[in-house]
Amino acid sequence: MRITFIGAGRVATHLAKVLHQQHTIVQVFSRHLEHAENLASQVNAQAIDQVTQLDSQTDLVIVAVSDQVIVEIMNSMTSFVPQSLIVHTSGSTSLIAFEQESQRSGVFYPLQTFSLDRDIEWVETPIFVEASTQADLVLLTELANSLSHRVYQYSSKQRQTLHLAAVFACNFSNYCYDMAQQIVDAEQVDFSLLYPLITETASKAVVNQPKLMQTGPAMRGDQNIINMHQQLLAQSERTDFAQIYALMSEGIFKRHHLDNKS
Q1: Into which CATH architecture does domain 2-154 fall?
Q2: Gyration radius of the chain's alpha carbons
Q3: What is the mean pLDDT of the chain?
Q4: Which residues contact 108 (CB under 8 A, 6 or more apart)?
Q5: 3-state SS class at 95
Q6: In whole angstroms, what is the distance from residue 179 CA to residue 234 CA?
Q7: Which part of the chain is the DUF2520 domain (predicted)?
Q8: Does the reported pTM lie above 0.85?
Q9: To bridge 87 with a disulfide, which of 108, 174, 206, 245 should be the other Cys (CB 3.0-4.6 Å)?
């Protein structure tokens, strides 16, 4: 298959490199030519920074850009690749956003967190596909199956729900790790001392219901410890941390005490 990438960021880089093993990456487009050149050099593709340069013979165009510019990019490029299947990699953008512009549109969404300095275990990464036609849905499913054994044909609404859950499970939890590091760094305490705790917490969450694995002062309703922690945060002048602590403690307490009484 001949594939063109729109975007040269983290998602595009990981996808282009893995798909390059089985397919031809024709072009990489980025508004910053140096970004396109960097990725294109890794997958033996042409780097371009103008949509007018798009190869009309591309079989598949993968739009891997931030959500807020997906539709804008789509509007600018469809006339140059009129026969191509055009898909985006977003978890939160509806297929409808593309269907209005292209007769052949779809979604190819890998549910994963991407960093340029870390490899992706593709075979275990869930991939969600959606398409405006049955034939293209089959094509995307086959492409996804070549990368992962966890491939799902989900609707836009289901995918948006997953993306929302992923923000809690990944982005918010990572910020909690960041807050934890800031707290210990302030007192010259080694953050790596928390590594076993972080690892064990994540491990328990994937083999049990997270609710059943909840521990800590808020779950126990230990107001003395909660008050002490709030005082420590107040002394550190991190009022934002104190607000987050109070909100999360309240949510945990409600989940394990008040909700169970209803």
Answers
A1: 3-Layer(aba) Sandwich (3.40)
A2: 23
A3: 93
A4: 62, 87, 88, 89, 127, 129, 140, 143, 144
A5: coil
A6: 14
A7: 125-250
A8: yes
A9: 108
